Amino acid sequence: MKKILPFFSYLFHPIFIPILGTLIYSYYGDRLYTQEQYYLLLFQVVIITFFLPLSFFYLLRTFGKVDTIMMANVKERKIPLLMQMVLTYILLQKSITVERFPELFFFFLGGFASTFIVFLLIYIRFKASVHMVAISALNCFVLGLSIHYQINCSYMIAALVVLSGVIATSRLYMHAHTLKELAVGYLCGSIPQLMFWYYWL
To answer: Rounded to 5 degrees, what angle do the CA atoms 161, 127, 194 make?
Structure first.
């Protein structure tokens, strides 16, 4: 078990959550667009939320600004979080607009709000868990989709709840966060999503 737990921190790194959210939305959402258009949407999300941040990470690592992709140090988080907000803003402006993909738009807007809160917490030297931010946001999004489309996603929601506990345990085992940092991270991820439910449920 001790060898398996760290694996979950990498497998469900926050960088993968936007892609998972997009895949789930494409599967459950309204079929208003062609399959090719959904592939294009996924392609844009993968480029902007995965490949570009990963490229910036290696650039920052080259210049000694970050040590690992887990951003263990509070100071290391400033540039990556700021960069993530800029990229999310571009995605919301150019691709995932409220007119085209309203549910997904508010999922990403909630993610932007969560990232901004975590960014502000850096200035009081508080390291909220970005892993918990990401998984809690995804959990709330899937729950919202289930309510919005009147579909049974109970197994997926239950799996995400269990996964949240496993990821939290993994972060504790790796001594990456305290219980307080995990709890604050979970709230930072879920509260914006729940607030934006008002606009799309």
So the answer is: 40
| 176 band by pLDDT with thresholds 50, 70 and 90 | confident
Buried residues in 53-81 as b, exposed as e (16+ CB within 10 A): beebbeebeeeeebeebbbeeeebbebbb
What average pLDDT does the segment 29-57 reach? 89
Which SS3 state, helix, strand or coil, does residue 132 take? helix
CB 142 within 8 A of CB 198: no
The whole-angstrom distance between residue 190's C-alpha and the CA centroid of its chain comes to: 11
Task: Quick: pLDDT tens for 101-119.
Answer: 999 999 999 999 999 999 9
Q: Which residues contact 122 (CB under 8 A, 6 or more apart)?
A: 74, 75, 77, 78, 81
Distance between CA 91 and CA 130 in Å, rounded? 20
Would you state the pLDDT for residue 69?
65
Q: Give the whole-angstrom CA distance, residue 139 versus residue 151.
A: 15
- Closest by CA to 115, choosing from 84, 144, 139, is 84
Q: Distance between CA atoms of 51 and 91, rounded to whole angstroms? A: 14
Burial string for 101-118 (b: 16+ CB within 10 Å, else e) reads bbbbbbbbbbbbbbbbbb
